[in-house]
Design a protein that fits this description.
It is an enzyme of class 2 (transferase). Residues 18-185 form the N-acetyltransferase domain. This is GNAT family N-acetyltransferase. The chain is of the alpha+beta class. It has helices spanning 2-5, 25-36, 56-72, 102-105, 123-138, 153-162, 188-192, and strands spanning 12-14, 18-21, 78-87, 90-100, 107-114, 143-149, 165-174, 177-187, 200-202. It has a nine-stranded mixed sheet with strand order 7-8-6-5-4-3-2-1-9, sandwiched between helices. Helix 2 (25-36) packs across helix 3 (56-72). The model is unreliable at 218-228 (pLDDT under 50).
C-alpha cells in the first residue's frame, strides 16, 4: 500500500471547520479548479513568484505540477508539506509547512494560498493555526516563521492575530520597482499564551522519520500548557 512507503498520506489535521491533508488525484484536480477561479484581487500581487498571473488553465496545471514536484523532492533533511485545506469536504486552498534540519534548527516556516471566494471568512487564520499546532505540539518546533509584503494586509492580519512579531525586512525588485517584505516570527511561548482553536492530529507517528525526527519529537504531554 502507498501508505507503507509514504505515510504522510494518512496525516490528518482537523480544526472546528477544516481538515488539512494530502489530496487524492480527484481532490487535487478540484483544488486546481479553485486556483483557476482566482486566488486574489487581480489588481494586487501578494506572491513573489507570480504563478497566479497565469491564464486559468495554466494556473490550474501549475498547482498540480507544483504539488507533485514538492512531494517528489522530499527528504528527511529538507521537506515541504503541501496540505490541502478542506471545508465541508471541498478543497479551498493550500497550507504549506516546511523545514530544513528540523531536529537541529527547531524552526518551521509556512506559506499558503486560498481561493478568492473563501477570503474574509477566518479560514486563513484557522489553517495556519492548525500547522502551528502541528509544529509546536508534535514536531518539537520552537519557532514558526512567515513573511508577507508590507502592503499585504490580509496575511499580516493573520500573523498579528496569531501572535507573530517582527523579525526584520527583505528588499526585492519586482518588475523594476522596490517591494519590501516583512519577516515575522511566532515563538512557542507566545503561541501558548494566546487563545487557539482546537486541533487534532492523526496519522503522525509513522511520518516522524520522514521529517528527520526519528520519533524524537516531544508530544503534547511534554509541553507546558496554558488556558485556551
Amino acid at each position: 500500500m502507498l501508505v507503507d512507503h509514504f505515510p504522510l498520506t494518512e496525516l490528518r489535521l482537523r480544526t472546528p471547520r477544516l481538515e488539512l491533508r494530502l489530496p487524492d488525484p480527484e481532490e487535487l484536480a478540484a483544488l486546481a479548479d479553485v486556483a483557476a477561479d482566482g486566488v486574489h484581487d487581480p489588481a494586487y500581487m501578494p506572491f513573489r513568484i507570480r504563478w497566479s498571473e497565469l491564464p486559468p488553465a495554466e494556473r490550474a496545471r501549475s498547482v498540480v505540477l507544483h504539488h507533485w514536484s514538492v512531494l517528489g523532492q522530499w527528504t528527511p533533511r529538507e521537506w515541504r508539506l503541501p496540505l490541502t485545506v478542506f471545508r465541508d469536504g471541498a478543497p479551498v486552498g493550500v497550507q504549506l509547512l516546511k523545514a530544513v534540519d528540523l531536529a537541529i534548527t527547531t524552526e518551521c516556516s509556512t506559506g499558503s494560498w486560498l481561493g478568492r471566494r473563501y477570503h474574509r471568512q477566518g479560514i486563513g487564520a484557522e489553517m495556519r493555526a492548525a500547522v502551528a499546532h502541528l509544529a509546536f505540539t508534535h514536531l518539537g518546533a520552537t519557532d514558526l516563521v512567515s513573511s508577507a509584503f508590507t502592503d499585504n494586509a490580509a496575511s499580516l492580519g493573520v500573523s498579528t492575530k496569531l501572535g507573530y512579531t517582527d523579525d526584520g525586512i527583505e528588499r526585492h525588485e519586482d518588475r523594476g520597482r522596490l517591494r519590501v517584505i516583512r519577516r515575522l516570527r511566532l515563538t512557542r511561548q507566545a503561541w501558548l499564551e494566546r487563545e487557539r482553536p482546537d486541533v487534532t492530529v492523526d496519522g503522525l507517528t509513522r511520518c516522524l522519520a520522514l521529517m528527520g525526527l526519528n520519533g524524537s519529537a516531544a508530544s503534547e504531554d511534554d509541553r507546558p500548557q496554558s488556558p485556551g
